[in-house]
Specification:
The two termini are 33 Å apart. It is built from five helices and no strands. By secondary structure, it is mostly helical. The protein is elongated, with a radius of gyration of 27 Å. It comes from Scophthalmus maximus (Turbot). It is found in: Nucleus. InterPro entries: Wbp11/ELF5/Saf1_N.
């Protein structure tokens, strides 16, 4: 989108000098307002506590990955809340990246710890759910079951889930470490 001259209209006709002055004043006002908005946003971000945001995300995880009790909130609501919190956290991290590199490194470490805990919680939740599924299946087919085969199937399924979650977690950790290393090199 190109910049339009202040001395002509959209159709290219010459503007009245009064209108031209009004248009330039409006342009200056918008530029000033943009700077003010950016300053206000930065001030609001500085007032937010990144550790509290991480604690809020941990509470959402505990709610979502609780194998004993169904979450109080809908899955979509949990996902949207986590997304909002994560976006806010990322904006705070970007702000500190420019202004305070030491705090930035600390926040990245905090985020990495959170991701690790979340991965472990999800893994535990999946393991419990698989165990419950096998127990239900065993109850339904109790007369036809060879117990040793069920144990092998259960351990294989849990092992597969463990391997997938661990690999995903390792990739996430590696990405975060590489991202942190790239920032420290600069």
């Amino acid at each position: 989108m190109g910049r339009r001259s202040t001395s002509s209209t959209k159709s290219g006709k010459f503007m009245n000098p009064t209108d031209q002055a009004r248009k330039e004043a409006r342009k200056r006002e918008l530029k000033k307002n943009k700077k003010q908005r950016m300053m206000v946003r930065a001030a609001v971000l500085k007032m937010k506590d990144p550790r509290q945001i991480i604690r809020d995300m941990e509470k959402l995880d505990e709610m979502e990955f609780n194998p004993v009790q169904q979450p109080l909130l809908n899955e979509k609501v949990l996902r949207d809340k986590r997304k909002k919190l994560r976006e806010t956290f990322e904006r705070i991290v970007r702000l500190y990246e420019r202004e305070n590199p030491e705090t930035y490194k600390e926040l990245r470490k905090l985020e990495l710890d959170y991701e690790t805990k979340r991965g472990q919680l999800a893994l535990y939740f999946d393991s419990v759910k698989v165990g419950l599924r096998v127990n239900v299946w065993m109850l339904m087919h109790s007369k036809k079951i060879c117990l040793s085969r069920i144990c092998v199937d259960l351990s294989t399924e849990i092992g597969m889930i463990w391997m997938m979650k661990t690999a995903t977690l390792k990739r996430t950790v590696k990405k975060r470490e590489m991202k942190g290393a790239m920032v420290t090199r600069e």
